[in-house]
From TrEMBL:
The protein's name in its UniProt record: Serine protease
InterPro entries referenced in this protein's UniProt entry, alphabetically: Peptidase_S1_PA, Peptidase_S1_PA_chymotrypsin
SUPFAM superfamilies reported in the protein's UniProt record: Trypsin-like serine proteases (SSF50494)
Organism: Rhizobium tropici
Superkingdom field: Bacteria
């Protein structure tokens, strides 16, 4: 028997308070119409007070065992509200590690304290999730990418290599699918597909990357591609009347990873809906890092973050004969793209 999400009264109260603080009635009217095709007035009469209408709205979806639908919609519209991310976790939309685990991962190896705030972490995570996309080529699921500019996505070169036209820049049948998520009950979020049109900067993988040993040491092989989308989406809302999607900026002075440092990865393994996994750095040389996070085919191009959710590496390889996973330091990608005339 399928298990349905049913919120506790405490969670119901939190959802009620958060919606009431984050939306005005007209915005809820638009959100319900666009996302679900229903009128707010069909759920509760417009003659009632605003507070009462929000109360009945939450009650309506909870009674229908569809509370995760409502939570997904309000979180997409207001990703900056950490309470919506907290409730999304409770509804199975995302699976965050325990905050104590994150603190342990973040703790500097030399000792010290961690100042990460759970609410701030949730806000950052919402932006990172909204930046993630599944790369689809010729209707086949191929990899993962991350929105790093208004209309710019970063992924692996090998993910889109076969779709590059003869001119070396144009892309054929490459689509970036954003918001590919699902709840624990397999309820899917609406996906936004955007065509990718051309390659702005790239670097191929090395022959040495095809085997565990010896590891590549050549700095000219970074297996990345910066690709342009057909339209700007970072400044556009995920749902009408919502906040802008946002993007994940690459840091000019990207933090350097060291062995045993914790990390997080957002990915679309095997073309599945978005997944988050934890791991740590197990080895590194100047141009490659190896890590213990779980990945699959389709994870290529997935962003790797430190525990502050700063992007620090780009996953690009896993090996069937070994537990080794490999990534490229973001700092090298930024420098290489700049040398080719592209500032990230």
């Amino acid at each position: 028997m399928e298990e349905w999400v049913r919120f506790s009264q405490t969670q119901i109260n939190l959802l009620y308070d958060s919606i009431r603080a984050a939306f005005v009635p007209d915005e809820l009217e638009i959100l319900l119409s666009v996302r679900f095709g229903v009128r707010y007035g069909a759920i509760v009469a417009s003659s009632k007070t605003d507070d009462y209408r929000v109360f009945k709205l939450v009650e309506h979806y909870n009674a229908k065992y569809e509370i995760e639908h409502l939570v997904a919609a309000v979180r997409d519209a207001r990703p900056s509200v950490p309470e919506f991310t907290e409730l999304a976790e409770a509804a199975g939309l995302i699976q965050l590690p325990a905050f104590s685990v994150l603190q342990a991962l973040a703790r500097p190896l030399q000792g010290g304290t961690v100042g990460q705030d759970p609410g701030d972490f949730r806000r950052k995570l919402a932006v990172r999730e909204n930046s993630l996309c599944r790369i689809v080529i010729d209707n086949r699921r191929f990899g993962t990418g991350m929105l790093i500019g208004e209309d710019i996505v970063l992924t692996n070169h090998h993910v889109i290599e076969k779709a590059i036209a003869a001119d070396g820049e144009s892309l054929n049948n490459v689509v970036c699918e954003f918001d590919h998520r699902e709840t624990a009950q397999r309820v899917m979020s609406p996906v936004m597909p955007v065509q990718a049109t051309r390659v702005l900067a790239s670097s191929p993988f090395a022959e040495a990357d095809q085997a565990v040993e010896p590891a590549n040491t050549a700095p000219e092989f970074l297996d990345y591609a910066v690709i342009r989308l057909a339209k700007r989406i970072a400044d556009q809302p995920i749902v009408e009347s919502g906040e802008p999607r946002g993007m994940t900026r690459l840091l000019e002075n990207s933090p350097e990873l060291i062995v045993d440092q914790g990390l997080l990865i957002l990915q679309h393994p095997n073309a599945m809906p978005m997944r988050l996994d934890l791991g740590s750095v197990t080895w590194r040389n100047p141009v490659r890092i190896r890590h213990s996070a779980h990945t699959l085919h389709g994870s290529s191009g997935a962003p790797i973050f430190d525990a502050d959710l700063s992007p620090v590496a780009l996953h690009h390889a896993g090996y069937e004969t070994s537990a080794v996973n490999q990534a490229i330091p973001i700092s090298l990608i930024i420098a290489d793209a700049r040398a080719k005339g592209i500032s990230l």
